[in-house]
Amino acid sequence: MTITLIFMAGIMGVIVWWLVKQTINVQPWIADTGLIPDLDADAILQPRAKSGLLAFLAVVTSMFCLFMSAYAMRMSLGDWTPLPEPDVLWLNTGLLVLSSISFQWARQSAKHGRDVSLKRGLYLAGALSVTFIFGQLFAWQQLAEDGYFLSSNPANSFFYLFTALHGLHLLGGLVAWIRAAFRVWSGVEAAKVSISVELCAVYWHFLLIVWLVLFGLMLST
Amino acid sequence: MSTATTHDETSYVPPAEVGEMELYHAKTWLGKYVFSQDAKVIAIQYAFTAIAIGMVALVLSLLMRLQLGFPNAFSFITPTAYYQYVTMHGMIMVVYLLTALFLGGFGNYLIPVMVGARDMVFPFLNMLSFWIYFLAVVVLVASFFVPGGPSGAGWTLYPPQAILEGTPGTEWGIILMLISLFMFIVGFTMGGLNYVITVLQARTRGMTLMRLPLTVWGIFIATILALLAFPALLVSCIMMLLDILLGTSFFMPALVSMGEQLEYGGGSPILFQHLFWFFGHPEVYIVALPAFGIVSDLLSVHARKAIFGYRMMVWAIVAIGGLSFIVWAHHMYVSGMNPYFGFFFATTTLIIAVPTALKVYNWVLTLWRGNIHLTVPMYFAIGFIFTFVNGGLTGLFLGNVTVDLPLSDTMFVVAHFHMVMAVSPVLVVFGAIYHWYPKITGRMLHDGMGMFHFWFTFIGSYAIYYPMHYLGFLGVPRRYFSLGNTDFIPASAASLNQAISIAAIIVGITQLVFIYNLVWSLFNGKKASDNPWNATTLEWQTATTPPGHGNFGKELPKVFRWAYDYSVPGADKDFIPQNEPPRS
Amino acid sequence: MVFAIALVLLVVGSVLFHLLSPWYLTPLASNWGNIDDTIDLTFWVTGIVFIAVNLFMAWCVIRYKKSDGNTADYEPENQKLEFWLTIFTSLGVAAMLAPGLLVWSDFVTVPEEATEIEAIGQQWHWSFRLPGVDNKLGTIDSSYITEANPFGMNPDDPNGQDDFLIASNELHVPVGTPVKMLLRSNDVLHNFTVTEFRVKMDLVPGMVTYLWYTPTKVGEYDILCEEYCGVGHFAMRGRVTVDEDADYQVWLDDQLTYAEILAQPVGDPVAGASAYVVCAACHGAQGEGNPQLNSPKISGQDGWYMKRQLEYFKSGARGTHEGDIFGKQMIAMAATLIDDAAINNVVAYIDSLPDVRSAATVSGDVGRGQKVYETCAACHGSQGQGRWALNAPRLSGMTDWYLVTQLKNFRKGIRGANRKDMYGHQMTMLAATLADDQTIDDLAAYINTLP
Q1: pLDDT digit string (tens) for C208-267?
Q2: Tell me, what's the pLDDT at B364?
Q3: pLDDT digits (tens, 9 = 90+) for B15-43
Q4: Is residue A145 within a helix (H) or strand (E), and if so which, with residue range?
Q5: Left, alpha or beta for B253 (phi > 0: left; psi -120 to 50: alpha)?
Q6: What residue of C is the nearest CA neighbor of A27?
């Protein structure tokens, strides 16, 4: 459970540090004297939707860390046979990197009100992501053709499991992308879509990091 | 009044002022009462559903007690059925009742109104979270009606037996259970994000973290625990589903079931236990922390005294929350895991006793030098302290690895966890309902029925679970359909089992009085004023009772003081509401 | 006031209950007295806290009750008090933890001179293995498990040849010698518990776990499974008999090694045919049974089951109860089979007889019977075919009125209550779930419908 414990220690550390910072020297029973004090010391200055997304990403990270811990624990048992990763996975990784870059481009465009490049970036990001999904399915097909099935070996099981979970989260993100893309297509100005695009971009960068970690883990073991 | 129809969750919070929330105003009956995005309605929906399914689980527990108290007297309670009752009772109570009620029920109602917000920050997501929970309950109930019946694997669902022949419900029941849990976790996450972000970013002007009532702290930290811990259960469910449906061997070693070699191999049942208890231990604090928070407020209000040591109470909640992630393997001392882990987990488990004990002292010290009004909520709060002290202390037996050796998997464990999870927090639930019912409905619950409910529930529950510990000392195992003949269990144990069963039946029937009170008082209860208990927290300062959509009328309150200005020297009343400006 | 008195009474009552009730730790029969000591210490510490906190609370309820002129104090916190309470609590916690960890370090350190005994758990019974003269246990793997090799012994491992294979729920150990139990499961999680020894540990399929103890008192002690293992969990029982050295040796001499079991001659149906003449008088020339003579069909029944029942009749594990009229007859019959070889031969002969379904004579509600049978199916199979791995004999196609009689006998303790009949004991517990004669008839009627 080491991987999970490290993550938990990290996130608990952040939470506890922040909470202690807000509360350590406060004597709450002292009421205001009537002057308006600086009560926003603990205000969090970002859109609530973004906070919500970040909290959700903490939950997703927890889940992936737990899967990785399970991977590490299962790997230590006798019957592990590492899986040869199909080459197409490298291509897919490239696609995912490009889609993150596209989202970043779209995000910057939205912030600066550039409608045209926003459209281009957004559509490109979606197209690359969809291609990535197809690429992952192709990788599955290749493995199955070569005789590496889900239940034959735990290394196989984890491969399919990791790629499936990552892919499903990406699909969920694509649902949000469809909404944002539709609004952009129907002419909503950049400023209004800005927050949706920003959240999508953050989510995509997160999934890219998750993919890189999972891929790296599977390659190295 | 705004005419915007969508909630603007993307607004920034300008540094100088609290942004006003645009509320969603439903236009249809369905949108207002069924798919409501008002956290108060969602709270009632959660509470109703949780209590309804909880009553089903209560009946299951009475059936179990019938078998234990009067073995084989009821032929429909076969061993197969018995283990199905055991499993469904446990899973429903822990997850679908307690977690849903404390977080989805109390959290949804109390958080917005206690922090001074109009509603939760993501109301659409909040509405979805309830309906996904509801569907999860439907799927779980459906498992009663499928071939083979519901799972009989024990609420802990340990593989390999959970998915193999020899355990009831391995045809369909276990699959539905896992799918239901998956749905619950997804739905809960949606709600949990709401609770956390609302506390962080929707507090009204002047409501700093240290001015929050402990009810909010308890639910807030519990939600953080839940968001981080439920993924462990999700991971276990997914991997177990794959083992069942697609023949993977995450948890399944090579084994011979019923004389046949199975296709599995190499998996680890202990891996499941690590994952499950990594969720399972924080889960009990997810149930306990809201209870801790709420009872602090009940004691404070009804003793007219600030909760003793508020800051320590806050840090204790945070410490307990953090520590709860590193004690999980105390559920696994005799699991066959590396026995050297026992040293570590016994130490962390006994360390967690310290902040918990401090909370107990502070609750009692709140009563000390107080002005104790023996209202129905106060009775339940004191009942909580008494039973929690008992349950918490028996935890010290089990947490100490050596003492756990003879007691593990005996009725001692069953007695301990019921005392700390079923008796104490449920006493708080009752106290909380008697306390907040006037705000939610505008009526007071009937006092006489409340006192009857209290005495029978409190004494009755103690009579059930205190003696049960001694069955554990004797060595009577848990999850035993019947004892048969043993060399060492005396015949008198059977009499004790009988007495416990009778007490359980009495306590079970007593709850009907409570349900009746809830309904009767809705129509005949004394009309309540806006603040019948003279409490300081913001929910009692709403514009109307019951609070309307938006909670506070035209203007959000501004907060000038903490939640515990009771019996302040020099004040003209024995309480000062949080939004009362200071005398200049 | 009433409430405070109630709280005080509850405290006093709880303490009195502890001191006066007959329900507490069973008499210790092993070296683990220090576990009992740690429990006692824990009781002292927690007991003091329980009494002090609750009595203080009761006093507060009286002293600080709402009354005219009474106002609450305003004291948001008292850091000094909280500090001392923290110190005091930490000391109490340390006082319990330290001895606990010391004893635990004893538990994880197995004495070098401990003898190793393997306990194998499976649904829902026990078997045991002793290492034999070479002091080494042969390798075992679940892939070797078959009806002929239920222990899963690796036939190519020479270390295993002299292992004693004890295919019984009962284990003997000599008093005064430390024992390291190696625990192994063939199927699901189980747990080996002997309450009087104070120790227990789960059995995990796919690995070997352990515990150790030194039995200090001669006697017989129940083995209970304490990790839920399916529908038969509560019926999975065993027994550890702690013997003086001499008695232990007598028991050990009776046990067979793997090599000896392999060397046992297969039953000879020709030799069995002549022994069978005696049996045919009641059971019929084709083993079809004879209701007039109260003899059930025995053809088609599992050989291992008949062997065991004949051995039981011979040893008095079955048939000695005064209510078991026909069982008594069988004791005399079984006595005509002078040794194991004779039993094997006659069983081999019965095995060769044609298997013709018994006529159905019992009527009942098949639907009700099916519901009841759900639990039986776990051991006996959904088709009533019997499962050797679970020691559950075939039920379908056999004699229904005999099944009814046996279930009633199990329920009444006429069969299965004898201490030597450990598998019968399981059946007494299961038969007890059949509330009345009608339920038994329904069950038999349903079993009649099985192929």
Answers
A1: 999 999 999 999 999 999 999 999 999 999 999 999 999 999 999 999 999 999 888 888
A2: 97
A3: 334 455 667 788 888 888 899 999 999 99
A4: helix A115-145
A5: beta
A6: C76
Stretch C82-98: mean pLDDT: 95
Confidence of residue B3 (pLDDT cuts 50, 70, 90): very low
ipTM of the complex: 0.94
**Amino acid present at B130:** F
Tell me how far apart the alpha carbons of residues B560 and A23 are, in angstroms, rounded to a whole number.
16
The two beta strands, C237-243 and C170-174, are: parallel
User: By CA distance, what is C207's nearest residue in A?
Assistant: A77
- B126 touches B108 (CB < 8 A): yes
Average pLDDT over residues B523-550: 93
| Residue A213 near chain B (CB below 8 Å) | no
Exposure of C332 by Cβ count < 10 A (0-12 exposed, 13-18 middle, 19+ buried)?
A: exposed
Contact check, Cβ <8 Å, B374/C209: no
Set of chain C residues whose Cβ sits within 8 Å of the Cβ of B85: none
pLDDT of residue B22: 67
Please tell me the distance from the alpha carbon of residue A185 to that of residue B459, in angstroms, as a whole number. Answer: 67
Q: Put the strands of the sheet holding C219-224 in their side by side order.
A: C170-174, C237-243, C219-224, C190-194, C199-203
Residue C383 backbone class (left: φ over 0; alpha: ψ -120 to 50; beta: rest): alpha
Predicted pLDDT of residue A111? 87
Both tokens of C105, joined, read: 């370090």
Question: Is the whole-model pTM more than 0.90?
Answer: yes
Which of A27, A32, A66 to probe the B interface (max B CBs under 10 A)? Answer: A66
Rounded average pLDDT over B382-395 = 97
From the list A31, A60, A79, which residue is nearest B582 (CB)? A31
Question: Which pLDDT does position C298 carry in this prediction?
Answer: 93
CB–CB contact C381 B487 (8 Å): no
Tell me whether residues B211 and A33 touch, CB distance under 8 A.
no
Spatial CA neighbour of C409 closest among C383, C440, C386, C382: C440
The predicted structure's pLDDT at residue B193: 96
Contacts of B152 in chain C (CB under 8 A): 231
- Listed by number, the residues of chain B in 287-346 with a beta carbon closer than 8 Å to a beta carbon of chain A are 306, 310-311, 314-315, 318, 322, 325-326
- Residue C242 to residue B564: CA distance in whole angstroms: 65
What's the rounded Cα separation, in Å, for the pair B228 and A8? 8
Question: Which distant-in-sequence residues (6+ apart) come within 8 Å of C317 by Cβ?
Answer: C311, C418, C420, C421, C424
Topology (CATH level 3) of domain B39-253+265-541: Cytochrome C Oxidase; Chain A (1.20.210)
Encode pLDDT of C342-394 as tens digits: 999 999 999 999 998 888 999 999 999 999 999 999 999 999 999 999 999 99
Give the pLDDT confidence score for residue A41 in this predicted structure: 54
- Contact in structure between C209 and C233 (CB atoms under 8 Å): no
CB contact under 8 A, B306 and A29: yes
Q: Which residue of B has its CA nearest to C93?
A: B350
List chain B domain ranges. 39-253+265-541
Fold assignment, A84-219: Four Helix Bundle (Hemerythrin (Met), subunit A) (1.20.120)
Average pLDDT, integer, range C269-296 = 91
The structural domains of chain C, ordered by start, are: 2-63+82-108 (no CATH), 115-263 (2.60.40.420), 267-356 (1.10.760.10), 357-451 (1.10.760.10)
Residue of B255, B310, B364 lying closest to C76 (CB–CB): B310
Tell me: the pLDDT tens digits for B64-104?
A: 999 999 998 888 899 999 999 999 999 999 999 999 999 99
Our CA-based measurement puts residue A176 at a distance from the nearest CA of chain C, in whole angstroms, of: 44
Q: For C101, list phi and psi in degrees, rounded to 5.
A: -70, -35
